[in-house]
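Write out the 3D structure for:
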Amino acid sequence: MKHKKIFLLGFIIVFFVIAIIVVFAMINSQMLHEKNIDLYFLNPASNTLEPERRKIASGDETDMLRSALTELKAGPKNTTMLVKAIPDEVKILKCRFVKDENNSGTVYVDLSEDYNDLKESQEILLRGSVVWSLTDFDFVDNIIITINGEPVKGSNNEELGALNRENFVVNPVISPDKTEMKEVTLYFSDESAAWLCPEKINIEVVQSQSIENKIVEQLIAGPRDDNHYATVPPETKIKNIKTEDSICYVDLSAEFVTKHNGGTAAEMLTIYSIVNSLTELDNVKKVQFLIEGQKEESFKGHLDFSKPFERNEAIIMKD
């Protein structure tokens, strides 16, 4: 009996030793199949690119590069300080890795034509994010960026060619955006929550931010007149705003819906405070709302969100 107990104890000890060895082997294997690199995201407060350490699953070179680009597009983990430098509308069409006879590695990154709609400062930060992130791989020496197959060009209209850490500083000096003061008309709720009241204010508009974006930003911030009341939940975040063919596409975060108190009258004031404010601009005739990039059927089950809204004069308080 005693020998059986000793044998059983020995078996248990051997089992646990083997289990520990297997666990450590699995951990080491996982570490060997992961690579730590720095991905570069934009700090809006300083308008500079800052690194964020990430684990990229190992594979062949192209797989790792594509994973890194996917992470760059998805955005930073630290969302309180950093944002992505590649806008949502710019798509990564292709990624190709090539090694030459001198063992120098070049990554070819092809972007969608939406890149051409960016401001110059946005283009520079996007290129910096891609170049510095991908060259953190030890097998990458150069990056060549193309736009739908065409070579990317700089402000002097010359092809940029191969970019690397020697010819592209991580935080280039970017000329300050031109600013100008513009008077805009914003619409907020009256005290009874029955009418929209116009409020004229002067806002500073920078070259890299559309006036449509600035108007919605000010609506979220709320009125300056003590007799007026906010219509948009303050938790709302602007995802993207662009105007095409006289339709302003306003893409807002989910909080625009989830943080709204609801009620048909309140919902009408919220929607038309935005619509009427934006249609004060000569280039905007209609407003199409999107939530987290998606077109919704309705706003909290009442207003039809599937089609653009036109200006509503009837809801504006008359003098």
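Residues 22-33 have pLDDT under 50 and may be disordered.
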